[in-house]
Design brief:
The chain has 19 helices and 18 strands. The protein is of the alpha+beta class and 569 residues long. Helix content is 47%, strand content 19%. Mean pLDDT is 83; it is low at 222-261 and 334-345. The protein has helices at residues 11-34, 45-65, 74-88, 91-108, 119-136, 145-157, 164-180, 187-192, 197-214, 249-260, 276-289, 311-321, 361-369, 385-395, 410-422, 435-443, 451-463, 504-516, 535-546, and strands at 9-10, 116-117, 266-273, 290-298, 301-308, 323-331, 350-358, 373-376, 397-403, 426-429, 466-472, 477-479, 482-484, 489-493, 496-501, 522-528, 551-558, 564-568. Strands 15-14-11-18-16-17 form a 6-stranded mixed β-sheet, sandwiched between helices. A 4-stranded antiparallel β-sheet has the order 4-5-3-6, with helices on both faces.
């Protein structure tokens, strides 16, 4: 269906563009994955770009949802888009795309409360985006997404009037020409007979920009090699998804082996809280350790991406610079031929696996030790459905039990489960509403049982676990227990505020007493980083002295949002 075109670049245009870009990347994802041969032929560029934009979409939608009346400013929406992309950026191309969006947002938000900008502002935003992305890459290479972004900015800057649609079309056409020329700039692309995958993804994003301002789909990329490979074809006319073909999959695999010769073994990505000076030193450290170094962000929050042989050293460098989290380490040799130079049989699927969303690093370690594949959810940064689907794939099992561990993630997890089922994976979603319910479910997990029996047992254990959390109120609001003020300590039982207090330990004790008044055999305490040091000892003593035959276990959850999670089963 054609979109209603946006005349100016305002908050609604940001929202529309992000949504259309996600749809476009969704259609082209498999195609882009198939032509991914540089810098590492790991076949995930399309997926990484999709997940990066999905995170941006979620952030923009959250900003719009926060307005009961009216709508956010252009600055609000642009900053949300950039922040969402930054925290959700995946892979080399996703990280660069996040910086492109951040560069655009810096220009779009410069007007403060200005409601919109015109084509001239859009052109400036595209110029700053291309320049800032190039600066974020330690060693820029031509024939990549950087080249395509620069060409788009050059073309946009040549438009003499202020119509956003005309500027967007010019940027798209400039990018389309540059993308078609990438095989002549990068030998690895020419050998494989493909265009740059990251640049192809950016073209999809720019095509969505054209549709935002004109209501019409952008013109497709013209084929340059006959005999389109089935894994590359599949774009419909007019959707911008046709591209230079792989003449054969064998060519791509030969190319992958050539790229991999002497290449680092690991991709390391993490978010980093650090000052500018520390990041400058980090760039030097990581540049000496490996290649494909991209560090994007600012204002104290950065996304770090690098390919190295020593993954531990890359993480340690981040620890020295600041506080790294959401650490992802991928071994390029796992399950593919890209680091071996010789074909290896595909890894055998496990029969059953558990995939769980967890709120802190401490619980991620606990779940992983129990054999679960984990997805880390930072405070205010819930995972998107694509991230859950990727985790299900990573579990590499025929049967998967999915634990969302948050009532707010029910629909997201259901969408991920449905997508995984279309890929032939049998998925059971257990509607756990807290990480402590997930712990109870994981404790009775028995992969040697029949799948249905295992799911029933895990569901029963989760359902028999009451859950609570102790947190600090961020603002004044009405609750089931009365009106709370910002800074009050809240005790929530089964999702509802049951206690309002001023002292964390006293509030936690009241919550625990109320939960145990209905009986229980085991209390689980999960401590956040900011919980009082003596709270666990105090609550353990309370249980020991007042409730006979009730055991207590304590875990460190890390930076999990809530000060304390409590489970009673």
């Amino acid at each position: 269906m054609a979109q209603v075109p946006q005349t100016f670049f305002d908050a609604l245009a940001v929202r529309t563009w992000c949504g259309l870009a996600l749809e476009s990347l969704g259609r082209a994802r498999e195609e882009i994955d198939a032509i991914n041969v540089y810098p590492v032929a790991d076949g995930d560029t399309g997926t990484n770009l999709y997940l990066t934009v999905e995170s941006a979409v979620a952030a923009v939608e959250a900003v719009f949802a926060a307005y009961d009346v009216g709508k956010p400013t252009l600055a609000d929406a642009a900053r949300a888009m950039a922040h969402g992309a930054l925290i959700g950026a995946r892979g080399n191309s996703g990280t660069i795309l996040a910086q492109l969006l951040r560069g655009m947002a810096q220009v779009l938000a410069a007007g403060g409360e200005t409601a919109h900008t015109d084509g001239s502002g859009l052109g400036l935003a595209l110029r700053h985006a291309a320049d800032s992305a190039r600066q974020a890459v330690a060693h820029p290479v031509e024939g990549t997404v950087l080249t395509v972004a620069s060409a788009a900015a050059d073309a946009a800057g040549g438009v003499a009037h202020d119509d956003c649609g005309a500027v967007a079309r010019a940027a798209y056409e400039g990018a389309r020409v540059a993308l078609a020329e990438t095989p002549g700039q990068l030998a690895v692309l020419e050998r494989a007979g493909v265009v740059d995958a990251g640049g192809r993804g950016l073209l999809a994003v720019l095509g969505a920009l054209v549709e935002t301002f004109t209501g019409e789909a952008a013109a497709p990329l013209v084929h340059q090699v006959s005999g389109v490979h089935p894994r590359v074809a599949g774009g419909s006319p007019g959707d911008g998804t046709s591209l230079t073909s792989l003449t054969s999959l064998a060519d791509a695999e030969d190319c992958a082996d050539a790229v991999a010769a002497g290449a680092p073994a690991f991709e390391v990505i993490y978010l980093l809280e650090a000052e500018d000076a520390a990041v400058a030193r980090l760039r030097g450290r990581l540049d000496a350790l490996g290649d494909s170094l991209v560090i994007v962000g600012g204002d104290g929050l950065w996304n770090v991406h690098v390919h190295v042989d020593d993954a531990g050293a890359a993480v340690e460098a981040g620890v020295e610079a600041g506080r790294p989290y959401r650490i992802r380490i991928t071994h390029f040799g796992a399950g593919d031929v890209h680091t071996t130079g010789a074909e290896r049989p595909p890894r055998e699927r496990a029969q059953r696996a558990v995939v769980a969303v967890v709120p802190g690093e401490g619980l991620a370690g606990l779940y992983s030790e129990a054999g679960a594949t984990t997805v880390l959810a930072r405070p205010g940064e819930p995972p998107a459905s694509g991230e859950l689907v990727q985790a299900v794939r990573r579990a590499h099992a025929r049967e998967v039990v999915l634990l969302p561990n948050d009532a707010e993630l029910r629909h997201t997890a259901a969408a991920a489960a449905e997508q995984a089922r279309t890929e032939g994976i049998r998925v059971a979603l257990i509607p756990t509403r807290s990480a402590v319910q997930g712990i109870a479910a994981l404790a009775v997990h028995a992969p040697d049982r029949r799948f249905d029996e295992d799911v029933v047992s895990m569901t029963s254990a989760a359902g028999a676990t009451r859950y609570a959390e102790v947190a600090v109120a961020e603002r004044q609001s009405w609750t089931m227990a009365g009106i709370c003020q910002a800074g009050d300590v809240l005790g929530l039982i089964d999702g509802d505020v049951a206690v309002i207090g001023t002292d964390v330990t006293a509030t936690a004790e009241t919550v625990l007493d109320r939960m145990l008044s209905a009986g229980g055999e085991l209390v689980t305490l999960v401590l956040g980083d900011e919980a009082p040091e003596t709270i666990a000892e105090h609550l353990e003593a309370r249980v020991r002295e007042s409730y006979l035959a009730v055991d207590t276990v304590v875990y460190r959850g890390g930076r999990q949002g809530a000060l304390l999670l409590i489970g009673v089963e």
